[in-house]
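Blinded run. Sample ID left blank on purpose so nobody reads anything into the name before looking at the predicted structure. Input follows.
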Amino acid sequence: MEFEHVGLDHGEGGKWDLRDVSTLELKQSFQRWQEGLAEVGWNSLYWNNHDQPRVVSRFGDDQLHWRESAKALATVLHLQRGTPFIYQGEELGMTNANFETIEEYRDIESLNHFAEAVGTFGKAPERVLRALRASSRDNARTPMQWSHGRHADFTTAQPWIAVNSNHVRINAEDQRNDHDSVFAYYRALIALRHSEPVVSHGTFRMELSAHPTVFAFSRRLGARHLLVLANLSENWTEYEVPLGWANLELVLANRVDAPLWSVGRLAAWEAQVFRSS
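Blinded prediction complete.
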């Protein structure tokens, strides 16, 4: 289990010194581990855990393109070579907590940083809180969002940390019967992994490595070939189909407006998985 990709948004001052991460940087990091372990090891694939902020807020878009970006990020992770891990609520697209005050935080690392940054170094509280909202471990520790009810139906008592206020629109109860939900898409990814041995056992090759926003790779196992593409940006983009790929069959897409898809173009946060026939 490597930690390189979850350190890419840390500046010279560490995790509280925020920096933007490009799709190119993410691709290069994953490629190093996919190729480096190809013949000698096995990747643990993850975006989230109890120490990491929520991926849809971290590397995605938790506002306008919340649903699409949660699905796109899941696509590029789960179809790589290795064993994917799903952290509680990730399959719903749970976001960062966005707490307003330091009193809402519980994580000792976050509390100590705030006390030192404000009390010792005299930084503005709001500036420090911005960093906490992005990087605090408490982003991953808010209660599981089971429903839009009180405390998200996590407990009938007072939870030790506040429930994310967006549980009224992001919760398991609402997503279970929604065929376009993040939850439904995670089930489709898992089903593809079970039905296509190439996902579990195939080779990995990064494609379109120089493209600034498209995360693309191919998986091959004998005659079984999959091409995975995701536009990790808020803008339409175009790409050149990698050499050797023809007669493509779409087997998975993260948007219900399927008539919009076309080979060579991707909408904002659009992901496509093709099988070569």
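Unblinding after everyone has recorded impressions. The helical segments are 23-36, 55-58, 66-78, 108-120, 125-135, 172-175, 182-195, 197-201.
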